From TrEMBL:
InterPro entries: Transpos_ISL3, Transposase_DDE. This is Transposase. Residues 111-366 form the Transposase IS204/IS1001/IS1096/IS1165 DDE domain. NCBIfam families: transpos_ISL3 (NF033550). It comes from the Bacteria.
């Protein structure tokens, strides 16, 4: 019989997980009495006392950290609040949370693809993210957005799963088009409306800046005055024409008159025929996208823009390149709006944490925040 078993039998200890080393018996004074004390080692860390059911303090801290990880709080701040180290917070996160395996799930009928700024160790610092286009649930985050990597990733899904996908919403990123054609045989592509508006919006913005700079450098007082008006009211020029105020007149010091927002836009454009042509094209594309007017959009692509800057030609050429996908955009109501919202949450989390070094930690924290993990015991 071992000395451990002998001591257990002598003291009537029934716990099988207590171990006594040799020379574990000492005489000590305890509460004024000379006592024999056996010092043993418990081979596991209990969650609670079996007699009084009091929870071990470390477990309380762990569950408190687990709850805080779901909030938009930095790891350092959680460590400070719980009076533990930042490394301990990371250990708790990795110990209790595991990301769901996406390959054990079926893909939805509508997918949304996008990318976001990831950690430095990632190639080109951009990672791939996808979402369910109908339920707006986060599906997975992939470390690299490059085509070969994504092909290997999606090839792990069965052909039947990929064939079930009907629509995929993307931005104007050519590798996504190649990816979908190769791995999703039944899927139609949709260009996100925001990127269409963004493309033409930046083109008109650059045109207005060019015209404004030329006027401000002019020799005549009237030309410089026109340049100042274009610069001061640039937000109204970028604004959707239907959202301009046509009724309320306010004193405008630059014009020395009471004018509505629509009149403020009309007067500078009347003095800049070239800018007015670009403005009209910009507004027509905005209207076509908003009202899903396919004939108007295609008409915009065939207009004579020889008098406009070269950037308009580049933008319209891009639209013509993605015209089949844009036609689907004007037909269906799906967009990457919810995914862009999720990207903003990721940026906020990254900003509060002052960045992440490890992609796995970053991904796991995002998954915890959006309920795409399972909790281990």
């Amino acid at each position: 019989m071992s000395h451990t078993q002998l001591i257990k039998d002598t003291l009537n200890i029934l716990d099988l997980n207590i171990y006594f080393e040799e020379n574990c018996l000492t005489k000590e004074k305890y509460k004024g009495q000379i006592c024999l004390i056996y010092k043993g080692t418990l081979l596991y860390k209990p969650e609670e006392c079996p007699h009084c059911l009091c929870v071990v303090p470390s477990r309380i801290i762990h569950w408190s950290v687990i709850a805080r990880l779901k909030e938009n709080t930095s790891m350092t701040e959680i460590a400070r609040q719980k009076n533990i180290s930042t490394s301990s917070v990371y250990r708790v996160m990795k110990r209790f949370y595991r990301p769901l395996n996406p390959f054990k799930q079926t893909l939805p009928k509508v997918l949304c693809f996008d990318e976001f700024k990831s950690v430095r160790s990632v190639a080109s610092a951009m990672s791939f993210i996808m979402m369910d286009g109908q339920s707006h649930a986060l599906l997975d985050i992939v470390v690299n957005r490059r085509l070969p990597y994504l092909e290997r990733y999606f090839s792990r899904f069965s052909l039947a799963t990929r064939e079930a996908v009907q629509l995929i919403v993307i931005d104007m990123y050519a590798p996504y088009v190649s990816l979908v054609k190769k791995l999703f045989p039944n899927a139609q592509l949709i260009i996100d409306r925001f990127h269409i508006v963004q493309h033409i919006g930046k083109t008109f913005l650059n045109h207005r800046v060019k015209e404004t700079t030329a006027r401000l450098k002019g020799t005549s007082h009237s030309q410089r005055g026109l340049g100042k008006k274009l610069k001061r009211y640039w937000k109204l020029l970028q604004k959707e024409e239907a959202k301009l105020n046509y009724e309320k007149r306010i004193w405008r010091a630059s014009f020395k008159d009471y004018l509505t927002e629509s009149e403020i836009v009309d007067r500078p454009l009347a003095a800049c025929p070239n800018l007015r042509q670009g403005y009209q094209l910009y507004q027509d594309i905005l209207y076509a996208v908003k009202k899903r007017d396919q004939s108007l959009f295609e008409d915009c692509l065939t207009r004579d823009i020889s008098g406009l800057p070269e950037t308009y030609t580049t933008t319209l050429r891009t639209f013509k390149k993605f015209l089949p996908q844009i036609q689907n955009t004007l037909h269906y109501s799906y967009s990457n709006g919810p995914l862009e919202c999720l990207n903003n949450h990721i940026k906020s989390l990254k900003r509060n944490a002052y960045g992440f070094r490890s992609f796995y930690n970053f991904k796991l924290r995002i998954m915890i925040r959006h309920g795409k993990t399972f909790l281990t015991k």
